[in-house]
Target: AAA family ATPase
Amino acid sequence: MPARSPLDSERDHLAASRAALRAMRADAEALDLTNVTANWVNAEVLRSEVGLRIKALADLAGTPLFFGRLDYAQAVDDDGSGHRYYIGRRHVHDADGDPMVIDWRAPVSQPFYRASKRDPQGIALRRRFGYDGGDLSAYEDEHLSDPAEAERGSALLRREIERPRVGPMRDIVATIQPEQDEIVRTSLSGSICVQGAPGTGKTAVGLHRVAYLLYTHRERLARSGTLVIGPNRSFLRYIEQVLPALGEMEVKQATVDELVAHVEVRGTDTARAATIKGDARMAEVLRRAVRSGVRLPTEPVVVVRGSRHWRVPVPELEEIVEELRSRDLRYGSAREALPQRIAHAVLVQMERAGEAPDDRVQNAVARTPAVKSAVTSCWPQVDPAKLVLRLLSDAAFLAEQADGVLDADEQRAILWEKPPRGVKSARWSPADAVLIDEVRDLVERTGSLGHVVLDEAQDLSPMQYRAVGRRCSTGSVTVLGDIAQGTTPWATPSWAAALAHLGKPEASVEELTQGFRVPRTVIAYASRLLPAIAPELSEATSVRDSPGSLVVRPVAEAGLSAAVAAACAEVLRNEGSVGLIAADARVPALAGALAAAGLTHLAPGTETSADSRLTLVPASLAKGLEYDYVVLDEPAAIVAGEPDERTGLRRLYVALTRAVSGLLVLHAQPLPGPLREAGEPAAA
Ligand SMILES: Nc1ncnc2c1ncn2[C@@H]1O[C@H](COP(=O)(O)OP(=O)(O)OP(=O)(O)O)[C@@H](O)[C@H]1O
Model:
């Protein structure tokens, strides 16, 4: 019999681990929950938990159960066992409970990502596995404590990065890089902000961080909750399968607009109005507006109980209201405290008169019509949407609240031209919804989650940062973004400013510089825009060996759309996904041209598949997405689609950095200045 190769033994371990996983799943399925608890609610909760566990234990075809092995130089456990660990997506144990595969998030797995020749962290051997489909087909060894072995790049990592990108975003758990791992494993108490050029793995790192935190603080985060915030639904659909693939089914996802959707948004603002409404100074205007209804009492409160009248005189009532006003309480909490304070004043009088009233009497007094009516006139209820509606339609009211905060011109810019009749008929804009959310929080504290990941964070307004910040006020946040990709008029000028608005000024700012997506020639081309859009940032690198292909093709104006469709047909001959990115206004014409050329296409966020690989992407939705090949239509139109040149060039930078293997630019108009070669004519 021929000697068994190391690969054969590894395959044996894979087969045994899969059998163990099947047994674990069968155990979970066989659990009899009929008589575990008499309580119907508890039984349902238990059933759903077991259901989730069964799902998490599925042996996903094509997803390798383990991708690495660590041999510690010395035994880790006291009993001398456990110096070899297989690292995978989830923990698998055999019938005796001994580990067959260790979760990548466990502390013993950490050296798989961090150990190096310089710092072997007790590791003698690190082995990476390569798979073809579900079959273990290769391995790669590093003897970290062997000084004679030369350090070399990983072919398996290169293969992973070069793999065609059809389908939704994948996890990167087998190839997380050391600088990424440091961010992933930052402690739950620490808020962090990651600045990174396009394709440096910010989104991937943020998602893996959530998975890590859930593993490390499962119970705490199950109670408080976690949330991933992305720029739009198509982006969220693109990333939504990463966490389930890592066994995490329960992380919520939302856009900022969805977080604050207390009213129906049907309107839009001018860039100027939206910028003012998104300015942090609005928080002060709203704070004043909320409290503007508080009035000092003008009449005493007289409470009748039986034959007796108890009278709280005006000066005493004034004192109570003033005291509540001076305290840093939510408006609603103060409003709840007021009747109790007035009732307490009555109780003191009763005691002085020799009565012995208890808490029940105080509650009864607080509920009397006299006290209630005093509260209504001194501390009226605030309806957040109605208050914002009044602020944006009543010039005198706005002037009063914004005095010394917004100048007259700014006030005019945010006032509605035609005030709506009511909250329902108002054409609320996204910025208005954020104002309403701020007022809601001034009235009643917004609940905080345990951890929030905020992706594409550069685009938020200060008021939006505040809305996110209050949703993690007692938890922590991972902020991900790229200043150079800020395309809103209010995009943040710096991370320090953004973190201050989020209420996390102490968060550390890390930078990722290694690009995993964009090939070298393409990133160099896109980086020509950097001096104009973010001069303080340096050009991203590319860890990819392939230089990639870059073609810039001038075409005649009349034939542009047809030429673009033909270019799509041309690149579709390659393997992988194709994104046709164009100015939003060009999308209908291009859809027509694609149809005329007999090419079907998808909308962004729809999953690409082997049969359907072409997506038509309006430039405004390109952020965060990636395609193997990108056909870019008319750069000048993308720039012209934005209110100012810098925003236009930033939008173009986003569009230019979506390609994994190749970029084909077609233009009839002259290219925007920074993209022209020195000495190149402006006209095509
Ligand atoms: N360590 C890694 N191993 C393999 N692939 C990686 C790694 N890090 C990132 N990638 C891949 O690189 C691509 C870009 O990653 P990601 O989308 O997270 O970047 P980003 O910084 O969020 O980009 P953008 O700024 O464009 O939003 C993805 O396909 C991701 O899977």
Observations:
- The longest helix spans residues 6-30.
- The mean pLDDT is 91.
- The radius of gyration is 31 Å.
